[in-house]
Amino acid sequence: MTESKIMRRGREETLLLGKNMKPEERLVAFLRHTQLVYKVYQAGVKYRAGLLPLRKRRISGSQ
Fold first, then answer.
1. How far out from the chain centre does Cα 56 lie?
2. Is the pLDDT of residue 51 over 90?
3. Domain ranges of the chain
4. Looking at residue 63, what DSSP letter applies?
5. Would the pLDDT of 62 be above 60?
6. Is the pTM of this model over 0.90?
7. 42-53 burial, b if ≥16 CB within 10 A, otherwise e?
8. Residues 25-40: pLDDT tens digits?
9. How does DSSP assign 2-61, residue by residue?
10. What are the C-alpha distances in Å from 53 to residues 42, 44, 56?
11. How far is CA 27 from the centre of its chain?
């Protein structure tokens, strides 16, 4: 599987940003990322438990 130019450029830019960050900045970025991932996970748990309202499902081909 080949990767797209956009994905490759995004990955390169992310690596460059990480290299230019101070250790404290990388730690804060990692913490924020972890918190966001946890929020997404919790939303999935609530959705599966039926605590969040169901969204209307789109029928493919109609928009």
1. 23
2. no
3. 22-50
4. -
5. no
6. no
7. eeeeeeeeeeee
8. 999 999 999 999 999 9
9. PPPHHHHHHHHHHHHHHHHS-HHHHHHHHHHHHHHHHHHHHHHHHHHTT-SPPPPPPPTT
10. 14, 12, 10
11. 17
